[in-house]
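Hey,
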Amino acid sequence: QVQLVESGGGLVQPGGSLRLSCAASGLSLDDYAIAWFRRAPGKEREGVSCISAGMTYTVQSVKGRFTISGDNAKNTVYLQMNSLKPEDTAVYYCAADKMAGSSCDPYGLGQMYEYDYWGQGTQVTVSS
């Protein structure tokens, strides 16, 4: 049974940092690409970043502030978020896509429907 569990969200002041974790069970990061998506209040879910076999992609709006990384030994993917802004407030989800045929590459992370497994999400609120 595949399970993705996000953690690390919370309330932070503008300019602050958070590190989100996505712990995977029932699948191996050797075989799956992992992406982070987010859904801000009143907006559509959007892709943020992904990692696949060491290759990463990060959307332009957070590039330079957010960094994705993976620890295959722990089967966990992280999203380090620095210099947070109020517009980063959202529920953050991680999702898994079979690496063979995955759209996660240095140029993009593909569409939501391509991801087979999803976590329950973790709330990030950036506010003073």
